[in-house]
User: Fold this.
Amino acid sequence: MNYGDTRKDISLLFPDSDKSGGLYSESGISEETAKQLDLYSLLDLHTIDFGAFFTCDPAVIRYRQMTFADLCEIYGLCDVLSRMLPFLTDIKELRKMSSHGDGIGDSYLYSISEIEIYNSLMELLHSELLPLSDRFTSPAFKAFAERIKLLTESDYYKELTEHLSELSSRVRDIKSITVGVNLDRRLMPESSGVLSVNSEKFKSGELFERVKRLDFKKDDMTLMADLLPYGKSQSENQRLAMTNAVNNAISEIFKSSVRSWKKSVQYYVLDNTDFLLRMVPEIEFVIEGTILIKRLRERGVTLCTPEILEGCSNRFSAKGLINPVIALKTTGELVPNDISFDESGMIYVITGPNRGGKSVLTCATGHAFAMAQTGLPVCADFCSMTVCDMILTHFPAGSEDTVEKGRLGEECARLDSMFDAVTCDSLVLLDESLSSTGSYEGAYIAAEVLRGFSMAGLRGIFSTHLHDLAASVESINSECIPRGGVRIDNLVAEVNEGQRSFRILRKTPDGKSYARDIAEKYGLSGEKIMAKLEKNKNSKK
Assistant:
């Protein structure tokens, strides 16, 4: 029977659903990067790595932006997707149970159960999703609604529902079976089988039970004796053997009823269940993404849909950028910052005091790329960008990573491995790298790394306490830019009278001013020290 072209996949994340299989391919965000940027605190993904949803395709990003726009603007849509998941989980479990069955007849009963779940799911989508479809603007949900409408309003679906209702009621009405056992001359079981399927349960033939129910007549539904007692004395093997025997008998009885329409059911129900099962990771992702957007809005964070640029070499501009991880983990005031990658600066060295906002901005930039390139909005007033092909991070490692090589050796090995992977389209984020060695050695190695990044033509941020590195930026530029390298510039974590503003400014750093401000804050400036000494001297007179 022709029921239309319903075998093509539907994707919430890819305009070409045939490419949605690439969801699980190697991506531009490694597990290490996802953990260092704390991306799993934003999206609670249980089964698939964050990087599986990262894409470099502008068309795919725009497609997802429209998907999330519908989810955020149409009340109840995300809830419908959430209610789909238990049905799909049950179908997965049924298929797993069926694959581990004995192969005799239980697959027929599993088929009935799967079709029942499928019908319940279709009823949910028909009654809850389709009424919202007039408001859909995204290609993803328009296509999804069209598919559900085609499936649930087809003659075949109605016929399937009628057959299923009839067959299900027969299966659900089974309360007992009558078993016949032939005996030989020695009264040993010779053969056995099911004589009838009954819609009522057998009654106990024991006198006490008959007194309780005031029933003293015996009929075909009153037991004369237990065939195999179900009780504490029965072993697990005995219970399993009896259960399997009964299940196989019931399956055999209904096999002929199901067999007549099983083939067409496989082409229809199983195929359409498959396309829904393949959507599960996407559904889980967009649900988590929508929850994240809601949490950020409730926190008061401004969100914008990033403009994805094409034909522009490695551009990025964000106004009022906020770190979403900090926003969701703290309750204090959030300080926005601006940052851009362009001809005047493709790589930045950020210097300033501890806890002055250097790492926060470094990570916020990574969050902006990660969220934008999974289709999510960005935590900023405005954002435009050329996509990157990968995000590479180099943050302080745990002590377990430094046992064999030592801290400096481990850091250098990780930096060296970055150059095996980076391209001119990459984004690199370094936070306090090479801080495990002396300032001279650290600044020297860091300058060599910066030269390499400049010549690679990539975008990057190097957050550091190495003020000598910031001072060497102009020297590195004068060497690399004539050879085709990109410009490096300085950013500074602002300090006013010893107080951190958490503002990151684009200017040449003055290491002495930081030290002077911090000394003032803690009373360790020369003037304050001398004032205390003078006070102590006078107090002893």
In short: The mean pLDDT is 82. The first helix runs from residue 31 to 36.
